[in-house]
Amino acid sequence: MVKLILFLKKSYLFILFAAIELVALHCYSNSTGYTRARMLTLSNKLVGGAYSGVSGVSDYFHLRRQNRELTEEVTRLRNELAAYQQAPAEEVVKLPVEELNPYVFTSARVVRNSINREDNMFTINKGLRDGVMENMAVLAPSGAMVGYVVSCSDKFSVCMSVLNRGFRASGRFKGSDYFGNLVWNTHDPRTVTLSEIPKYAAIEVGDTIVTTGFSFMFPPGIPVGEVVDYRVSENPALYDVTVRLAADMNTVGNVVLVNYTDANEALDLESSATGR
Amino acid sequence: MYRIVEYTILFIVVLLLQVFVFNNLTVSVYLTPLVYVAFVVLLPMETPPAVTLLTGTLLGVAVDYFMGTAGINTMATAFIAFIRSGLLGLVVGKDLVHDGGIPSPKRIGAGRYWRYAAILIGVHAILFFLLEAMTLRYMLHTLARIVLSGGVTLLLVRLVGLLFESRIIRKRI
Q1: Which of A40, A116, A185 sits opposite B68 (nearest CB)?
Q2: Which residues in chain A have their CB less than 8 angstroms from residue B31's CB?
């Protein structure tokens, strides 16, 4: 007994240390991208307002560029609108907005972002009370893919960045049907890899990659980026294509959220079809 | 324990710096300064090992909470907090450690300080980035992150140290 007490007295520090490490290791190994996002959502309740303040200051440095991007986008949309207005009136069928378009767009501002982690997430300044929901797509003002919402609190939402090993989306070549998974290789915040493209696909540097409509997060045809390089993958019958992202993840400030209003109906249908 | 107020302020300041400034750096994938370890580096040399371990763990947990890293920071920080007193004895020498005070180049000599800080911060960076990567596949890539982020952290920690020391000296006068 005395020996036991002496032993504990001598090595209590090591036992304490080992216990701390084991508990932390247990938490880490059991965590997923989703639980980490939940954790960030919780901490946002505490410091989300302060993040907004800090990013409000640093945003000033990007105002010039952001204004230019927004003006370019407005110009593009005006051109598109002018084309519709040219059409004879009887050809334009007036439908309520929701019926016409299953995708509803809203805007938000990024208040916290990172590119230097292996699993990057970012936080936007809108949450449940603004109608933001999990799985909404997040796009740059130019319309390029940036990420999707993973977890929401009342005023903030944590989003999965394209630059995250847990990011799940697929991309295809614009103008052909070849598609593959988009993965980030953690090396370069400007590029992602489009994997498993069959070798007989005619790939050219400069080809545009857009999203497929397979997921219920991203509408089909959202620009992802441009092909800058391709090489034979581990499976010699396939190519891995390096895609330069159309969105600049370093300086993403304003974002557009997309709500696919038919997603629930489609998901319900899928689960009822496969559920039995 | 003395200077509890000063060290509480240091704890809060390095935590705020980490959460609001260095966690939001979007300069390079290789640059993740983990400045909060300054607290562990700057604790008085005579701090009881148990106090170092517990405060270091608390800091790690706090950073994990704000970074959404679920335990990596806790593991890395608890580890360096645990080896700190042994490392001080080895690098700085029992006599100087016994005299106590903040480990600074002035007090323990520039060579000893940089060796001590580099080992502590280096071990922390190695643990952090290996745990984050959880793979040895991109070893060179991970190594670059360790060296660059660790080096920048080392310089930033010295800067925090300078500010902290000047504050304490001013208070004494």
Answers
A1: A40
A2: 116
Chain B interface disruption, residue of A186, A192, A245, most B CBs within 10 A: A186
Give the domain extent around A129.
37-85+108-276
Assigned domain for A217 exists: yes
CA distance readout (Å), A165 to A33, A185, A192, B126: 9, 8, 11, 20
Instruction: Encode pLDDT of A219-269 as tens digits.
Output: 888 899 999 999 898 888 899 999 999 998 988 888 999 888 777 777 788
Predicted confidence (pLDDT) per residue in B96-109, tens digit = 888 888 898 988 88
CATH of the domain at A254: 2.40.10.340
Residue A103 lies in a domain: no
Does residue A13 belong to the interface with chain B, where contact is any CB pair within 8 Å? Answer: yes
Amino acid (1-letter code) at residue A5: I
pTM of the model: 0.83
| Chain B residues with beta carbon closer than 8 angstroms to that of A51 | 20
Which ipTM did the prediction report? 0.86
